[in-house]
Amino acid sequence: MTEPTGPLKGLRVVDLTRVLAGPTCTQMLGDLGAEVIKIERPEAGDDTRGFAPPYMPNTRESAYFVGVNRNKKSVTIDIAKPEGQAIVHKLLENADILVENFKTGALAKYGLSYEDLKQKYPGLIYCSITGFGQTGPYAPRPGYDALIQAMGGVMSLTGEPDGEPQKVGIPVADLFAGLYGTIGILAALRHKQATGEGQQIDIGMLDTHVAWLANQGMNYLATGQNPPRLGNQHPNIVPYQVFPTSDGYMVLSIGNDPTFERFCKNFGLEHLLADERYATNAARVGNRALVTETLTAVTKTMTTDEWISKLEALKIGCGPINTLDRVFADPHVQARNMLVKMQHASGEEVTVVANPVKLSATPPDYRSAAPVLGQHTDEVLASAGFDAAAIAQLRDSKIV
To answer: Disulfide engineering: 166 pairs with which of 63, 134, 143, 159, CB 3.0-4.6 Å?
Structure first.
């Protein structure tokens, strides 16, 4: 692992997270230069090591695990044993941040809750990411992405009007919770710089899910009416949706009346501008089915590529519905360096999705691919003051 260069260089993170929400948070910290010590169960490791196939090519590492655990050092410690807990305390002596996503209250039985640690380490920033937060009637419950999508309302908004509720195709509840955790940590670091004080950050997946209901949440608060599922259509803008073409589909995003006027004038629909059902966005929202039917007859007359070429020239929002092979081959995605090749401990080169944060002076760095289980145990314990004999004894006792 090379030396970090990011803006969080010099910070140490003790990472007691697994699966996705917590590891998303700690990978972001690692990408920004923090030293992240990922503590895993001996022999088993993070659950996602077993979320396979698929594996990364020519390795036994799951693609899932490799995707959210770069720039971390893997140390195996049995925290259920007092000797393991003592090692964690040793690491915390020089740590700035602890991130955990155990069920609420679970770390207290190991003496590693925030209440257990805050007096001994008053500057420690302690981020807890759970399904339902540290308080409230649901606090003891486990949290899972699909469950949170259901309880948080997103599934009620996703899917075809006459179909069943649908979850989003990627685990957005986990991802948003991890990113909100990172935001909280960065704010807590600023407070610590000013005061020297640490604090606990309480991230509940349901809270973060409710927070990003965005316009749909506000639509409900404004009307008292549950927004219906609209499939690929926008609740507040028409036309802003998927349309068929002669050889497939495209997304057409007409965000205002001048753009709609420009669309109509260029594609033989100028007569619609004199029709009050089409004249304004509010009218088009009220006549959604009619607008969709009228435009569909037109969009079917050309291929997707032909439409995109013409619409882009007119500065009208549009785009193809790419499969992932086309996403990663897209010249813009490639120009933005959104794929990174990294050397894995197996000896293989692995390709991962890059960090999207573009910092001009201190960009994210890519020091090491996701570690194999326990790859850095000896290194980290040695840096914490354990000699070779002590490490060997811990290993013989199955503490590490």
So the answer is: 159
Taking each continuous run of H as one helix and of E as one strand, the counts in the chain are: 17, 11
Residue 351 has pLDDT above 80, yes or no: yes
Q: Which two tokens stand for residue 66?
A: 């490799």
Kindly report whether the global pTM for this prediction surpasses the value 0.85.
yes
DSSP assigned state of 301: T
Q: Indicate the residue type of 348.
A: E
Q: Whole-angstrom Cα distance, residue 342 to residue 366?
A: 8
Q: Please state the φ and ψ torsions of residue 64, each to the nearest 5 degrees.
A: -55, -50
Average of per-residue pLDDT values in the chain? 96
Catalytic residue among 174, 202, 207, 365: 174
Question: What proportion of the chain, given as a percentage, has pLDDT over 70?
Answer: 100
- Separation CA 11–CA 384 (nearest Å): 15
Give 144-181 pLDDT, tens digit per residue.
999 999 999 999 999 999 999 999 999 999 999 999 99
Tell me, yes or no, if 365 is annotated catalytic.
Answer: no
Separation CA 247–CA 375 (nearest Å): 50
Q: Are 173 and 152 in contact (CB under 8 A)?
A: yes
On whether the CB atoms of residues 15 and 22 are closer than 8 A, the answer is yes
**Where are the alpha helices (H) located in the chain, listed in sequence order?**
21-31, 63-67, 82-92, 114-117, 145-151, 154-157, 172-195, 205-211, 214-223, 257-266, 281-286, 288-299, 304-313, 324-329, 331-335, 377-383, 388-396
CA 43 from centre of chain: 27
CA nearest neighbour of 337 among 323, 316, 353: 353
Distance CA 219, CA 34 (A): 40
Token reading at 17: 């997270």
